């Protein structure tokens, strides 16, 4: 299916698609997936699409700050890959007969966009790369890894395909940040502090099944969502997210004194109970 067709099939309301209803019934019977599972996936996929939309906007806004033409081309390519992720996720919802939002709903995404735009206005390329290439990509990797590991077969395959791109985006970001750190260690570590306190609380607050508006928009019962339907829980994902964030900061070669302080600060906004507790000891 070419991209135009993917888009068409993802957006076209059309009559009730019997194949989608059948596929959902197959997953319910063959893989013990309940309506609760599909509601949870509808919620997660919708929020993932929001993150992908934010990523397109961030990468696009960052292009003029990229130093070389090759860097600009690479950044546009990243934005394009995020756009394909939206279409893939939306078509999964259609195939499994659940609703997905195709716009940003939760306020945290708008807040991160605002901070990113501030960094662009300040011509602060390190802060832009840290917000999008490192922080957002790291959280995307945790999300898609979870869906790959715990989702139904269709969701797992799709999440695995998106995950490959996100891992590549993170690697691109790590290489970019390492070279900027080599030029200006103090400035780039300062950019990390600035971005961390603004963006990480927003990203971590979304590792949750309680939302501001999303469930209302999807017409699902917020209180009934349970990560048990994905055979995981919030604490486990938060620990994984914190571990992944620490690994990203280590790989980027930031100053360990700076990163230790930042990680410790995460307990103040409910980073991860288990890890934050042990770090504080
Ligand atoms: Fe993506
Ligand atoms: Fe990405």
Automatic annotation (TrEMBL):
Pfam families: Ald_deCOase
Entry-linked CDD domains: Ferritin_like
InterPro entries in UniProt: Ald_deCOase, Ferritin-like, Ferritin-like_SF
Transmembrane segments: none
SUPFAM superfamilies assigned to the protein according to its UniProt record, in alphabetical order: Ferritin-like
Entry protein name: Long-chain fatty aldehyde decarbonylase
């Amino acid at each position: 299916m070419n991209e135009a067709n993917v888009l068409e099939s993802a957006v076209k309301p059309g009559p009730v698609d019997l194949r989608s209803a059948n596929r959902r019934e197959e997953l319910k019977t063959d893989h013990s997936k309940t309506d609760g599972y599909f509601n949870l996936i509808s919620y997660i996929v919708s929020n993932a699409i929001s993150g992908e939309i934010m990523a397109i906007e961030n990468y696009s806004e960052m292009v003029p700050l990229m130093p070389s033409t090759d860097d600009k081309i690479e950044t546009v390519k990243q934005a394009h890959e995020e756009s394909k992720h939206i279409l893939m996720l939306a078509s999964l919802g259609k195939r499994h007969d659940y609703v997905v939002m195709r716009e940003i709903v939760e306020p945290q995404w708008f807040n991160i966009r605002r901070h990113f735009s501030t960094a662009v206005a300040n011509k602060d390329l390190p802060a832009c790369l840290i917000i999008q290439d490192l922080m957002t990509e790291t959280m995307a990797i945790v999300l898609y890894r979870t869906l790959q590991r715990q989702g139904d077969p269709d969701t797992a395959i799709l999440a695995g395909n998106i995950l490959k791109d996100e891992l590549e985006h993170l690697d691109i970001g790590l290489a970019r940040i390492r070279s900027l750190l080599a030029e200006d260690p103090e400035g780039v570590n300062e950019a990390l502090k600035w971005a961390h306190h603004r963006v990480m609380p927003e990203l971590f607050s979304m590792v949750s099944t309680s939302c501001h508006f999303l469930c209302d928009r999807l017409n699902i019962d917020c209180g009934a969502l349970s990560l048990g339907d994905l055979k995981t829980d919030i604490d486990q994902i938060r620990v994984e997210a914190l571990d992944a964030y620490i690994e990203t900061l280590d790989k980027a070669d930031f100053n360990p004194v700076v990163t230790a302080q930042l990680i410790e600060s995460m307990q103040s906004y409910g980073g991860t109970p288990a890890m934050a507790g042990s770090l504080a000891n």
